[in-house]
Amino acid sequence: MKQQVISVVVPVYNEEAVVFESYKRLTGVLKALPDPYELIFVNDGSRDATADILRRICGTDPAVHLIDFARNFGHQTAITAGMNYASGDAVVVIDADLQDPPEVIPAMIDKWREGYDVVYGQRAKRKGETFFKRFTSAAFYRVLQKLTDVDIPVDTGDFRLIDRKVCDALKQVKERNRYVRGIISWLGFKQTGVEFDRDKRFAGETKYPLKKMLRFAFDAIASFSYKPLKLASYVGVTVSITGFAYLLVVVYEKLFTTMTVTGWTSMMAVSLFFNGVVLMMLGIIGEYIGRIYDEAKGRPLYVVRETLHVSGAEKLTGGEPAPAHGREGRRHPLAA
Ligand code: UDP
Ligand code: MG
After folding, report:
1. Which of 161, 203, 252, 301 could form a disulfide with 108 if both were Cys (CB 3.0 to 4.6 A apart)?
2. CB 45 less than 6 A from any atom of ligand 1
3. Cα–Cα distance for residue pair 184/81, rounded to 1 Å
4. Minimum-distance ligand to the CA of 213?
5. Whose CA is nearest to atom 14 of ligand 1?
6. Which of 8, 76, 93, 97, when mutated, tests ligand 1's pocket best, judged by the most ligand atoms within 8 Å of its CB?
7. Same domain, yes or no, for 198 and 247?
8. In whole angstroms, what is the distance from residue 118 CA to residue 165 CA?
């Protein structure tokens, strides 16, 4: 059988406490495979020693590649960059913090050899995550499923293996504010899952604080659903019907009772409530317009400061052909 190359993409952001351990465990698993591999770290603008550690690793291990972003562009963008550079026949995306156990990769490769194009890791158990995170995450995947027409499997993260075909198809998708796992589901292909228990973080803390999580959740929903926009019409209809009913009450009271012109309070309540509804709807529309604006500007998805060992003729910014920033192979003095 022809040897096939496995690429592994690891996005890292301020992971100095875990990145070396993660390199060791991944390398252990990958060396045991019969296939050649490449390990691509995408440094997403870390402000700690992560980049230095990665440069040192690159200096000693030719299988390790580094893509160093000019600043923090976000997890989903880092994954995208890694996939753009990957040259393997199968590409695996895995978190750096060892919450996704590297030992699951061989099982994914087996499924891939059986003929599946996408093998996603499905979280059976989640250890060491707060109740809040597990609850919000479970709720998010279910709401997303209700809101979208694309069948995005629940409780799967970006830990997955994709075939070269899928990776190439993904490169055609240029949208910003990306929800990568959703786009992969949208692409179709033959998909399956392998279950695993999500471990707790090896060290350090989550890079997804509440604010980023909300942003991420809205990106996911907005990329795959217009339903929030439709909410305006539904709420509008409901409110009009209620308003009309109340109008009848008011007219009745005026004509047949003496209790007219009482409530300043009720006027205020109604006005505050409706202003709130209107502003909320404007906000939702604004979110979509903001995304249209992002697309219209057509900026590159990311900008790379430097790359180490990256062989592929892949471009240095997201999507567009060969720009001038960043230089291939420019070695940092620390890189041995
Ligand atoms: N990450 C990144 N850029 C960011 C945030 C996170 O590259 O802006 C990386 C991070 O280093 C890790 C992965 O994305 O490898 C998942 O992040 P994290 O473990 O913090 O998320 P959680 O597992 O808590 O959802
Ligand atoms: Mg994590």
Report:
1. 161
2. no
3. 15
4. 1
5. 75
6. 97
7. no
8. 10
Q: What is the pLDDT of residue 286?
A: 80
Q: Are residues 62 and 190 in the same domain?
A: yes
Residues 82 and 173 in one domain: yes
Question: Is 48 in the same domain as 89?
Answer: yes
Say how many residues make up the chain.
336
Choose between 91 and 128: higher pLDDT: 91
Q: In this predicted model, what pLDDT tens digit does every residue of 227-265 receive, in sequence order?
A: 777 777 778 778 878 877 887 887 787 788 876 666 767
Domains held by the chain: number:
2
| 95 touches ligand 1 (CB under 6 Å) | yes
Whether residue 121 contacts residue 93, with contact meaning beta carbons closer than 8 Å, is answered with no
176 and 259 fall within a common domain: no
Sequence-separated (6 or more) residues with CB below 8 Å from residue 45: 13, 69, 70, 71, 72, 73
Whole-model pTM: value is 0.74
Ligand 1 in reach of 96 Cβ (< 6 A): yes
In order of 72, 293, 298, the CA distances from 105 in angstroms are: 27, 39, 35
Tell which residue, 307, 311, 318, 302, has the closest CA to residue 54: 307
CA of 133 to the centre of ligand 1 (A): 14
End-to-end CA gap in the chain: 37
- Name the phi and psi angles at 61, rounded to 5: -130, 110
188 and 165 within one domain: yes
Which residues, listed in sequence order, are joined to residue 281 by a DSSP beta bridge? none
